[in-house]
Design brief:
Blueprint: H1 11-23, H2 28-38, H3 42-56, H4 69-78, H5 101-105, H6 107-118, E1 133-138, E2 145-151, E3 157-161, E4 171-178, E5 186-191, E6 197-199, E7 212-219, E8 232-237, E9 239-240
Antiparallel strand pairs: 1-2, 1-9, 2-3, 3-6, 4-5, 4-7, 7-8
Helix pairs in contact: 1-3
């Protein structure tokens, strides 16, 4: 799609373009146009901030790497000489995700996750519908991100793995949810560890901000009770996006 064909009045298209901008898959001209539009379009700016915050969490999956001496030399060559002011002052703003060193450290990991988020359209649009709710489920031990849970306007969930935990043949991953006022959790079924899965709204006891989601390690056929019996692997409370 050409820049002149963009319809930023279409909310789904706006959120899709924001996601493509953060992932760095737009052309230089398109990215520059997004940056220009963000100065006056508050929702576009909010969408960019949302995807930067969500995707930047994936850097926690990668071990820190010390910059090489060659890289430091390149940085020093680009810095102005002592006492020489930059040609012009540039307003400070958080750099796009693809300009950070951590982004390039996990290009492979984020590419896999992005392909799931963007869907089968191969980055043509980030999402068919901007999520109404979202949460990154984290390990209760080291806070490492494991899954993204997104809920759309219809109440349907999409569960996206950020890592591939090794599960023994006699064990399975089971997804649970518990609304704030509920007395017990509801099982949303077993989930695969290596691919995205959608859960219809009919299987949920509703969907609201603050609702708890967790993935536990259970027997291969699932928990024998109406509650989790195994170790909690990932947990988090969903939040409203808009």
């Amino acid at each position: 799609m050409n820049i002149q064909d963009w319809d930023l009045q279409d909310r789904d298209e706006l959120w899709g373009l924001a996601g493509e901008y953060v992932l760095g898959v737009l052309t230089t001209e398109e990215a520059a146009e997004i940056e220009r539009l963000m100065a006056t379009n508050e929702e576009l700016r909010a969408a960019v901030d949302y995807w930067e915050d969500r995707l930047l969490g994936m850097t926690a999956m990668i071990e820190p790497v010390a910059p090489s001496s060659e890289l430091w030399s390149q940085i020093e060559r680009r810095l102005p000489a002592p006492g020489v002011a930059p040609a012009r002052a540039v307003p400070l703003r958080r750099p796009p995700l693809w300009e950070t060193l951590n982004f390039w450290r996990f290009t492979t990991a984020i590419g896999a996750a992005a392909s799931i988020i963007l869907g089968a359209t191969a980055f043509s649009r980030l999402v068919n519908q901007a999520p109404t709710y979202a949460v990154v489920l984290q390990s209760p031990n080291d806070k490492s991100p494991g899954w993204i849970v997104q809920g759309d306007r219809t109440g349907k969930l999409q569960l996206i793995p950020l890592a591939k935990p090794v599960v023994a043949p006699d064990r399975a991953l089971q997804l649970w949810t518990k609304p704030l006022q509920a007395k017990k959790p509801t099982s949303l079924g077993l989930v695969p560890s290596d691919r995205s899965v959608q859960i219809p709204a009919a299987r949920l006891p509703g969907l609201a901000a603050g609702q708890l989601f967790e993935i536990t390690l259970e027997p291969a056929s699932g928990s024998p009770l109406d509650r989790p019996t195994g170790k909690i692997l990932f947990i988090g409370r969903i939040a409203a996006v808009q």
